[in-house]
Amino acid sequence: MKLLNRFFSPALFKSLLFAFIAPLTLAACDSSKDVDVIVPKSESQSSDVNLKPGEGGGYIFAHMTMNNYGRLYYAVSRDAVDWTELNDAQQINTDYYGHPNICKGGDGKWYMLGVSSTGNHHLILWFTSDLITWRHRELPESALSLTGKTFDGLTYVNSEWFGAPKLFYDEASGQYMITWHAGVSGLKGDASWESRRTFYCLTKDFKTFTESKRLFNFTGADANCATIDVVIYKQNNTYYAVLKDERWPEHSPYGKTIRIAKSQSLTGPYSNPGPNITETSEWHEAPIIFPSPDGSKMYLYTEAYATTGHPYNMYSASSLENTSWTIMSNTPPTGSRHGWIIKVDENIYEAVVNAFPNENTNGK
């Protein structure tokens, strides 16, 4: 023991201990080295099921807001019923302008249409591989053109929004269908809205487009049916067109409601639309159609635009063949308007949540 004390005095021990610890301390403080720093989520984020890591993926709601019309916001949900706004309820892309409607193409990318925010509102194609970084380019002016065309002897014109164009990718033909609505030239106000008809064109590459044509040719009491906000969905080899009947209620019992027409072919002919899904007592538009988390039901979101606050109402049915839909309670993003909902896998879901965190609100 005396021998040890002779060689390892307290002073020598402290010196050796410092020599061992100091390099470790300096290395930990060296900013020139790559260091993985894990920042735990706040308790409020951890308690929000929409922001917690999971396994089954979820839904992304791309939408505009009542107070910032035409701009792009994100909300997320695991069950498509209760939603959490991302990015502290701020825009996720300050360049986008339009009515967001997203479809996934055959190349695995997501596509969305918008318009330029200035000038004569050129049509803009937006695309992304991760739903985080969006790129865009203008489409040729000839796309969606109705110039020089007449339908049933009437001339139609595109509005500055190009009639809220929507996208659908058809796996069977490898084509994208763009649908939009236009009104008869020279009409104003209510008469203009009742003249709206839905048009379409097809493209495989967003460079060349087929000739613009009218999509529906309804008969009987629906022969004069005005249609806007049409979205296409395919289920069990049948194409369904979910649409807003734009007639005024005094002119049709289905006026200002959401209805569904169907066809065995992408471009039709489509049947007369079925009975109204939404109530005639409330006016609805901007329908969104998508499957439930387990795929056993179809969900419909649609904006009650004549109701204070423009809430998105939610309905469900076992399939698009159903004529009776059940209204569901839900908590949509505050002030959300004119959007689209897509289901994504867990990797994409978590990446989007992490890319647009709620730093100020901690998840709510």
Q: Could you give a short account of the major beta sheet?
A: 5 strands, antiparallel
Low-confidence stretches: 1-45
* Cα-based radius of gyration, to the nearest Å: 27 Å
Structural class: mainly beta
DSSP helical segment count = 5
Query: Overall pLDDT, averaged?
Result: 87
Give the helices and strands as they follow along the chain.
HHHEEEEEEEEEEHEEEEEEEEEEH
* Share in helix: 10-25%
Number of strands: 20
Distance between the termini: 65 Å
Shape: globular
User: What is the strand content?
Assistant: 25-35%
Kindly describe this structure.
- The structure is a single chain.
- By secondary structure, this protein is mainly beta.
- It is built from five helices and 20 strands.
- The strands form five sheets. Strands 8, 9, 10, 11 and 12 form a five-stranded antiparallel beta sheet that branches. The protein has a four-stranded antiparallel beta sheet with strand order 3-2-1-20. A four-stranded antiparallel beta sheet has the order 4-5-6-7, with no helix packed on it.
- Strand 17 (298-303) and strand 18 form a beta hairpin.
- The longest helix is centred in the first third of the chain and has 20 residues, at 10-29.
- It is globular.
Task: List the main descriptive attributes of the protein structure presented here.
364 residues, mainly beta, 5-stranded antiparallel beta sheet, 4-stranded antiparallel beta sheet, 5 helices, 20 strands, disordered N terminus
